[in-house]
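Re: How this chain folds, sequence and tokenised backbone to follow
Notation: Tokens come from a learned vocabulary of local backbone shapes, not from coordinates.
Start of record: The labelled sequence and token lines come straight after this line.
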Amino acid sequence: MSEKSPPPESLLPYEAWSEEAMREVAWRALEHAAKHGLPGEHHFYLSYRTDHPGVAIPGHLKAKYPQEITIVLQHQFDGLFVDRVAERFGVTLRFGGVPAKLVIPFGALTMFHDPHVRFGLRFTPSGLEDEKASLPAAPEAPAAPPAPAPAAPGEVVSLDAFRRRPNNKDGG
């Protein structure tokens, strides 16, 4: 009887609780930035599903990024707010010098990353459970340089360099 049986199915929603706890970290970081600005060299890369219900972005951005977009909050952004009741946040960024107001439900977030301290979180978008099985393992990014360049205000950057995190000691 050396056969191992699979662990029993949990009657407690540990995965959902863990996801909620990780989202709370992103909420608090954004709330802090909204109230106090970003301290020191901290800055945020935020990826979210543009096709998620409740996402409000200008049409030209939706057309260019129909599934997912990554935004950078660094030196220049306006009107950052966090609305816990509606479970969303918003910010105005400049794309090609043109201001664009973005409103993003927290359920649309797929990634929060602060490269200054090498802190990052990945999320499963909520509200897209039926679509979850059809999501690609690594969402396709628009054509961009293989590694992110220093981000200009409102610049969308490729995060391919951050997609894999080495967990073993040889760095691979």
Summary: The mean pLDDT is 79. The beta strands are 44-49, 68-73, 78-83, 88-95, 98-105, 109-114, 119-122. The chain has three helices and seven strands.
